[in-house]
Amino acid sequence: MAITPDDLRRVYSEFLLVPDEMINHAILEATVIMGDDVDRWLGQDVYYMAQLNLVAHLAKVMEGTSLGDDNAMGPIRRTEVDNVEIDYAVAPTDAASTEEFITTVYGRRYLMYRKMCFSGWRVA
After folding, report:
1. Gap between the Cα atoms of 34 and 28, Å rounded
2. What pTM value is reported for the model?
3. How far apart are CA 114 and CA 19, in angstroms?
4. Whole-number mean pLDDT of the chain?
5. Which H helix or E strand runs over 44?
6. How far is CA 94 from CA 12, 91, 107, 120, in A?
7. How many other C-beta atoms can be found within 10 angstroms of the C-beta atom of residue 101?
8. What is the dihedral of CA 29, 35, 36, 37, to 10 degrees?
9. Using 50, 70 and 90 to split pLDDT, how confident is the model at 24?
10. Which region, left, alpha or beta, applies to residue 122 given φ > 0 means left and ψ of -120 to 50 means alpha?
11. What sign results for the dihedral spanned by CA atoms 27, 31, 33, 38?
12. pLDDT at 48
């Protein structure tokens, strides 16, 4: 079951005005990031929910940049010394970094599903 732009809009109505082309690009990119082996993701349902959130994250990031928002999509660090306050964006340290995904609620939900599937063994 492949995600469609209408699937995204049914779950997240805030994407009603986002063009199909942008959502389809986000779907393609999400498939590249996640792969298409649903069994790695504990089955079709978890894969679908994780991909839906990743597509929403990617579409939200693309929507911001298409509107001319060139602000960093990354964590902001703030430092204050005396009466001087400095804000700066922190770039991800490597390609596998999860920092990009924490910039939206959808990305954080995607990370939750990713942790569920790929956290490894736990010993109590």
Report:
1. 10
2. 0.74
3. 27
4. 83
5. helix 44-66
6. 30, 9, 17, 21
7. 22
8. -170
9. very high
10. beta
11. positive
12. 96
Q: Which residue has the tokens 């993701």?
A: 41
* Cβ atoms within 10 Å of 14's Cβ, excluding its own: 12
Q: Which two tokens stand for residue 41?
A: 């993701």
Q: Are 24 and 42 in contact, with CB atoms under 8 Å apart?
A: no
In order of 5, 57, 107, the CA distances from 52 in angstroms are 10, 9, 10
Q: From CA 93, how far away is CA 113, in angstroms rounded?
A: 22
> Would you state the structure tokens that stand for residue 72, as one six-digit string?
């960093």
Report residue 122 as tokens: 């736990």
Only one residue has tokens 């340290």, namely 93
